[in-house]
Every structure is written in structure tokens, then in C-alpha cells.
Design goal:
alpha/beta, Rossmann fold, 2 domains, four-stranded antiparallel beta sheet, 10 helices, 38% helix, 28% strand
Length: 229
């Protein structure tokens, strides 16, 4: 599905990501974990075309290098950004329609309301008046409106209550069963290792460790550094 090789991202003199290689298989959740400033969000921005990047980024047989962000959406990538960034003055339905990207908009809205019943109950509510958890679900649903092959989630549990985090985990598992590939950037390493099959541990933009999530969760160094055990 997604193949990233030798990814490099700089912001002026700051090297945010250095020579990173990883892949996301079909129908699988892969996690990027690490502390704040590890480079996780920069990786997603580089893949989405929101940050200038070197190296190779391929989605299936499509080389994404040189494509603008909207062209990458058309190729099959969607991003639910850190901080949600819903359109606060627009209704739930209007937010969803923004993400439709030329598909059957009303049919997709109906599909999202089936996947997120809470949003269906709040179809006409102004997004800025919703709770943080509801806004997070709206941001994910808006990303899904483009019918992506790969969904990228940037810190989807940040600031959410544990019960909402559990709902995000359930949602990711449902999306995987539907055949969607997911790239998850998450500081909550415990959650990420629970829901992902494979994980890459980043530290100051470089790959520190990688492996099956279950193996990393049992690793004493990972437990001490990222799981608080």
C-alpha cells in the first residue's frame, strides 16, 4: 500500500525527519509513536504534501513525488489532522460535504452517519459547539468522505477522555475490517500499540525501534520510556 523510503524533512536549519523508511500494508494499522517533537506529524505532512520532503513516497503503483496535496487526495490519501481543525462556524453536515472530493456526496454523508451515529444526531449542529470527542469523530468522518485507500490519523486521542479513546480504538478496528489501511501518529503509545499491528518508534526525527506492536509492548525499554511501566 504505502511505501516510504529515505524520507527527509527540514524546516530551515532544523532537520525534523532524517532518512526514514517504513511501509503500511493493505488493511493494516501501522503506528508512529514517540514523544512530542519526535517528527510524527512532520512525516504525515510530508506524505500529504503539506511539507517539502525528500526521498520516495509511493501509494501502490503511484509515485506521489511532485503531486500537490489535492492530487494526493485524489490518489487515495486522507489526513485527519492534529487538533481536528473542523470548520467551527459550519454545521456537521457542511463539514462533511467539504471532504466529499467529487464523490456522491449525499450517499457518503448517509454512510458517515451510519458509521458515526452521534454525528447523525447532530447533523445541523454547528461544529464549534460540539465536544472535543465529537469534533474528533467529525474530523475523521470528513477525511473518510474522500473514500481514501489510506487514512492518516494525527494524534486522534489528544485531550480526549478514556471512554472516547476506547471509541477511537473500536472505530479503527472497524475501518481495518472494511479494508482500509491506517497510518496512526500517536503520543499515547499504549493505545497505539493496542490498535496497530506494527509500530515505528521515532526519536528526534530518526527511527529508534520498529517491530510488531505486541513485541514492542513487551520490551522493557519501550515500557519504561513510553508506557510508564
Amino acid at each position: 500500500m504505502l511505501q516510504v523510503e529515505r524520507l527527509g524533512i527540514r524546516y530551515g536549519a532544523v532537520e525534523a525527519v532524517d532518512n526514514l523508511t517504513f511501509h503500511v500494508p493493505d488493511s493494516t494499522c501501522v503506528a508512529l509513536i514517540g514523544s512530542n517533537g519526535a517528527g510524527k506529524s512532520s512525516v504525515l505532512k510530508g506524505i500529504m504534501g503539506l511539507a517539502s520532503a525528500t526521498g520516495s513516497i509511493r501509494l501502490g503503483n503511484t509515485d506521489l513525488g511532485g503531486l500537490k496535496s489535492h492530487q494526493r487526495v485524489s490518489a487515495g490519501i486522507a489526513l485527519s489532522p492534529e487538533g481536528r481543525h473542523v470548520f467551527a462556524d459550519m454545521s456537521v453536515k457542511e463539514n462533511l460535504l467539504v471532504g466529499a472530493a467529487g464523490h456522491d456526496r449525499e450517499a457518503l454523508v448517509t454512510e458517515m452517519f451510519g458509521l458515526f451515529p452521534r454525528l447523525g444526531e447532530r447533523e445541523k449542529q454547528i461544529a464549534g459547539s460540539m465536544s472535543g470527542g465529537e469534533q474528533q469523530m467529525l474530523a475523521i468522518a470528513r477525511a473518510l468522505m474522500s473514500k481514501p485507500k489510506l487514512l492518516m490519523l494525527d494524534e486522534p486521542t489528544m485531550g480526549l477522555a478514556p471512554i472516547i479513546v476506547d471509541q477511537v480504538i473500536v472505530l479503527i478496528n472497524v475501518l481495518k475490517k472494511r479494508g482500509l489501511s491506517i497510518l496512526l501518529a500517536e503520543q499515547n503509545a499504549e493505545m497505539a500499540l493496542e490498535v496497530a499491528e506494527h509500530a515505528y518508534v521515532l526519536e528526534t526525527g530518526r527511527l529508534k525501534r520498529e517491530g510488531a506492536s505486541a513485541d514492542l509492548a513487551r520490551d522493557p525499554a519501550i515500557q519504561e520510556d513510553y508506557l510508564g511501566l
